[in-house]
Amino acid sequence: MAKETEKQLKERWLTPEGKKVKKQIIDHMKEGNWEMFLVEFPFVEEVENKKDLRFIDLSSANLRGANLAEADLRGANLVEADLREAYLVEADLRGAYLWRANLKGANLKGANLTGANLRVADLWKANLRGAYFLGANLSITKMDRKSL
Questions:
Q1: Nearest to 132 by CA among 111, 118, 117, 105
Q2: Cβ atoms of 81 and 60 closer than 8 Å
Q3: What is the mean pLDDT of residues 21-30?
Q4: How far apart are CA 28 and CA 98, in angstroms?
């Protein structure tokens, strides 16, 4: 992905429309019908299933129990986010920032965490079966053997 494209993907969340869409998405994440707010959002058509959250800033957000199955969260800022018991099956988290994120009991089955920063993240009792961690930073990350 070109640096210019990354910049555009980040900036779309900073516009008045982007801030409105982000709030609507957060408000509907637990129900799992949040992608309907992305219908006419810039660059969404690049993601096959239209679940385009690339480069969104959800740092410190309360996303406990959120349904983010198959969401494209590449490059997303999830630093210190509460993702306890979140449903992230087959989510694309390549290059995402999950530093100090709470993922206790989250379902990350088949998620792609290639190059993600999970430093000091809490993955205790998370389902990590089939998840990809190539090049991910897992230093000081808490997890149990049953997760794998």
A1: 111
A2: yes
A3: 95
A4: 21
Q: Are 97 and 78 in contact (CB under 8 A)?
A: yes
Q: Which two three-digit tokens encode residue 78?
A: 């999830």
**Cα–Cα distance measured from residue 95 to residue 133, given in angstroms and rounded to the nearest whole number:** 10
The tokens of 76 are what? Answer: 């997303």
How far apart are the C-alpha atoms of 63 and 81, rounded to whole Å? 7
67-115 pLDDT, tens digit per residue, is 999 999 999 999 999 999 999 999 999 999 999 999 999 999 999 999 9
Q: Output the 3-class SS for 102-141.
A: ECCCCECCCCECCCCECCCCECCCCECCCCECCCCECCCC
Query: Which residues make Cβ contacts (< 8 Å) with residue 45, sequence separation at least 6?
Result: none
pLDDT at residue 148 greater than cutoff 80: no
With beta carbons less than 8 A apart as the criterion, state whether 75 and 55 touch.
yes
125 neighbors 85 (Cβ within 8 angstroms): no
Instruction: Indicate whether this model's pTM tops 0.90.
Output: yes
Cβ atoms of 106 and 125 within 8 Å: the answer is no
